[in-house]
Every structure is written in structure tokens, then in C-alpha cells.
Amino acid sequence: MIRSVRRALAALAILLTGALALSGCLYSQIPPRAEGGVSTPRPVDGIDEELVPFYGQQVQWSDNGAGMLTATVKAPLDWNDPAKGELELAVVRQPATGGASQGSLLTNPGGPGGSGYDFIEQSVDFAVSETLQEKYDIVGFDPRGVGRSTAVTCLDADAMMQYLYALPSHPRGTAEWEAEGAADNKRFADACEANSGGILPYITTDQAARDLDLLRAVLGDEKLTYLGYSYGTFLGATYAKLYPENVGRLVLDGAIDPSVSGTDVGVTQGVGFEAALRTYMQACLDGAADQGGGCPFSGTVDQAMGDLSALLASVDRSPLPSPDGRQLGADTLLTGIIAALYAPENWVYLTDAFTLALQGDPSTAFMLADFYNGVEDGQFSDNSAEAFNAYNCMDYPVDESQEAQDAATARLQAEAPTIAPYWDGPGICEVWPHEPTGVREKIAAEGADPIVVIGTTGDPATPYEWAVSLADQLSSGVLMTFEGEGHTAYNGQSACVDNAVDAYFIDGTVPEDGLTCQP
């Protein structure tokens, strides 16, 4: 993949659950569902014969001991050729807490590569409001390639730590630096191919959206009710493109524009994080982004950003040692910065990271980078980094001209001067073992029920302009705007947003197109 996409696409991988850690019946036709045991799938009339064994399967539920039910659903390895084999999808369901259920509300926390299973099992209150929990069975699942489902597997923990944190042996930007990064990427990609059991060609959003329709059916729902965050908006929009007639009530929060190229994604995110960093810096200088210890920068925002650039350049030249043997270079420091910028509540950690780094202590910066990379006590808590690469390398075609790439680089340098020197580099997708099958195109989903798209004006990871574009593309798109900072808006950021979303899911009340909400 083009070089500028490497870090930019990585920005989509932060999970909403991680951000929290740091800081009249709609479905009258649904068959009765048991609180355990077996769920009855919907009739398979009209389904291709070769798909009947999948759509007609009965889901065997087990109690997880904490009030939720878990199951495994079988899906075709390749929806275009179901005879090739099958894989497994891990599912968790919290039955409606109010008793009678309106049906299943499926969720996706983002990524690609985020565990929807953990999202619900470990943080259901963060995922959806108590009001929705009363009315719906809340369902989380690990998409194909992720977590407890048939998963992408690449490097062992030690090799993965080396891949993510090792310092380059050559000066940034040199031919030797490029070659070293390309070789590291090749080893990673080759390991993914060798250790993933042949699933890599089928780890795509198109295939995952077909899995989503399978889950809808085997759960017994006539139409899909779905809440997708961040990357989950792309999954939901792709579903609407493939199955517009099966779209029920969809809410897409923190939208991705499906028509934007990989190069444009990279640049737009870089610019978005630079803008968020400037907003943080103003709060830091104003004394609103620390725990009483003061801001380590001074002067104007421009002067403070200049001092931050000097800090990044300093650790790039002379990395800061950590007691665990790792060294903090500019790439890892920038990863920690990105992690903290996802939510204003986490800005205090960023202030602490900067304060300590300026004193030669990388501990908080490593804490933030480890959170981003899913590292806990030196081990990886999930395979999100591996699945994330697998999806993006198959979803994003590499067809931009050199002229387009040069223009993108020029824009990034002009509009994100602090981030730009560390945003570029050899891309993993340039050496991925399979050619991408995804397309970047507008999605209209003609015939779908209203689809609510939420954009946050200060969102660094999925910039507001993408939500505007997606809502405009969708034939039934309804745009909601949250005037605030951080990534995504629903469930806790604004009563206005929460009430509108809950009313749509529960009563079918479509928000006014163009509704604008404040914190």
C-alpha cells in the first residue's frame, strides 16, 4: 500500500473500550427466543441452496456465568464459493434486561480488528445505554479474523513486540531506513500467511458484512438493527450496500467515507490528529489538561507545537530508555500521542507523558502506546494489530498515481507539520501476500430504511467531513452533528445525541436530518 497509509490507517485501530479504560414492538414476527439453549433461525426461503446449512443452523447458547449467553456460529470461509470450507464466529448476547425484547441489537466497536465480543461482555454499559439494554438483546461478535472467531495469527509475543517497538538502525528517511522497514514488514506479512490457516484472502469487510447478515438471520431477526462505531460504520454501510432490503434501524457513529482512497485517508487523518493536538495544546496552556501539575509547554499554541516538534526530534535522535529494556523513539511517542487524542478525558495522560518525557522518563508514553497496541504486562491481550492489517490490506486498493501521492504528502506537510515527519514510512500492504479485493466507492443502498450517520466536529480519527459525505451518499442517510471533541458521540457525550439515537432504535423516530447537538 502507499507509504502514507501506514500510520494513518493504524489510527482506526483504537477501540472505544480502550478509551473508556483510560478515562409498540418493532419485531412482532420474531420467533420466541430462549434465555439459553437454542435460538430459532428465520425461515430460509429464498436463500441459495448452498447457503441453507449456514442460514438454517440453530445457535446453541451457553451461560457465561455473568448474565450473558455465548455461542459459536459457522460461516462460509468464502461467501463467493461456500464449498471451500467454513470458519467460526464468536458471539455474546445480553438478553433484554426489561424482559420482553424488541429483537437483537448488533454492535461493532471499530478497528478493523476490534473485539465486539469483549466490547459487550466487558463494557456493555459503555457500548449502549441502559435504555437500549432494557429493550433489546445486545449482541457483540468477533468478526472473521478477530479474537475468539477464526483468527488471523502472525508473530509470537516477543516478535510482535520487536515489530512494533524496535528502533530503526538507520537514520529516518534514508534508503537503508526504507529497506529495513520493508524487510520488517515482509517478515510480518509472511508470518501472517504461514500461521493463519489460509484465511487471509477472505478477511475483508465485504465478507464480514455477509457474516453480519448470517448473524441477523440465525438470531431470528427479520431485519438488521445495528450500532457501529468508527470502522463499524464502514461495515454497516457495506451491509446496507449488499442487503438494503434487510436494513432495519442502523446508526453509524464516527463515520468512514467508503469512497475515500487510502492516500486520502492517510492525509485526512494526519491533518485531523494535528488539529486535535493543537486543541489539546490550547487546553494544556490554559491549565485544563492536567491534574494540577501544570503544562510542560508555554507561550502560544504555535510556540508550544514547536517545542513538541523539538521533543519528537530529540527522542528520534536519542531514544529514552525504559526499565523494561525498551527505548522510546519518535514513532512510539507519536503512537502514545494518538492514543490519548481519542478522548478529551485522556488529555491529562498526555500532559503527564510530555512532562515526564521532557525529564527523560518514558513511562507514561509507553503506557499510552501499550494501550494502543493492546499490550498488558508485556503480553498482547488480543490480535487486533494483526487483524487490522489483514483487513486494511485487502480492503484498500493501491491505485493512486505518483502525482496523487506527492500532492497528498505536500498537503500533510503543510497542514500537519508536527506529525508529518513521523507519519510516513514503508507500508505493510506493499508486501501483503494477497492482492486487495476491496473497492473504494460511494454507497447509496437504494431502498434501505433510514440510516442515521453521526459525525463529531472535532473527531481526529474519523473527521466530520466523512460523516457528511456518507450521509449524503446514502439514499436514506440522516446526518446528526455533535459539536465537540473526541472520537464518536453516542452514549455519554451528549444527552441530545443519546436521546435521538435511543428514540430511533426504540420507537423508530427518525432524527431530523441535520440535527446538531452540543455536549
From TrEMBL:
The keyword Signal applies. Signal peptide: none annotated. It holds the Pfam family Abhydrolase_4. One of its GO terms (molecular function) is hydrolase activity. Residues 105-284 form the AB hydrolase-1 domain. Keywords: Hydrolase, Signal. InterPro entries: AB_hydrolase_1 (IPR000073), AB_hydrolase_fold (IPR029058), Pept_S33_TAP-like_C (IPR013595), Serine_prot/Carboxylest_S33 (IPR051601). Residues 428-517 form the Peptidase S33 tripeptidyl aminopeptidase-like C-terminal domain. Belongs to the peptidase S33 family. This is Alpha/beta fold hydrolase.
